């Protein structure tokens, strides 16, 4: 039995799609529409983004926190929408290009289940683009933190989340799990 030929699109065709609040990503010609997030997923995104925004407002330096869906180009033909991400440097949200061209300092994905796509595929794309740190937040509130060259250093954090990239940032993961 022959498999149907996949329908691949160009980046231009992808970017010409109508604006949506749905999460839609683009990898090497494939348009990927993940399932809708769970309520627990969304609560964690809100709590994480609020903690990061509070930190960014008082941090030394300029940091901007965004919540998906928001297109970020990690390479030609690779446009993803991290759940939460942090840009290092000034950013004028009214003048930015779509998709964002700047590589985030930090990307965060919150899992609604065991998502290999987030844990493997996205991690590889983020690593290739030069993302300095990647957090994968599990439904239980435990965080896998990937850092170092090509995001190959992994650490499981289950109490207090901190980061050398974000001096002064601290989040009690017990509060995140509630």
Overview of this protein structure:
- The chain is an alpha+beta fold.
- The protein has a single domain, classed as Alpha-Beta Complex (tt1808, chain A).
- 25% of the residues lie in helices and 28% in strands.
- It contains 4 helices and 12 strands.
- The protein has helices at 11-15, 39-58, 116-129, 173-177, and strands spanning 25-27, 30-32, 63-67, 72-75, 78-80, 84-88, 106-110, 133-137, 143-147, 153-157, 160-162, 170-172.
- The strands form 3 sheets. Strands 3-6-7-8-9-10 form a 6-stranded mixed β-sheet, with helices on both faces. A 4-stranded antiparallel β-sheet has the order 2-1-5-4, with helices on one face.
- A hairpin with a 7-residue loop joins strand 11 (160-162) and strand 12 (170-172).
- The chain is globular, with a radius of gyration of 16 Å.
- 28% of the residues are buried.
Whole-angstrom Rg: 16 Å
Q: What portion of residues is helical?
A: 10-25%
Element order, helices and strands? HEEHEEEEEHEEEEEH
Shape: globular
Can you list the strand order of the major beta sheet?
3-6-7-8-9-10
DSSP, total strands: 12
CATH superfamily: tt1808, chain A
CATH fold naming: tt1808, chain A
Query: What can be said about the biggest beta sheet?
Result: 6 strands, mixed
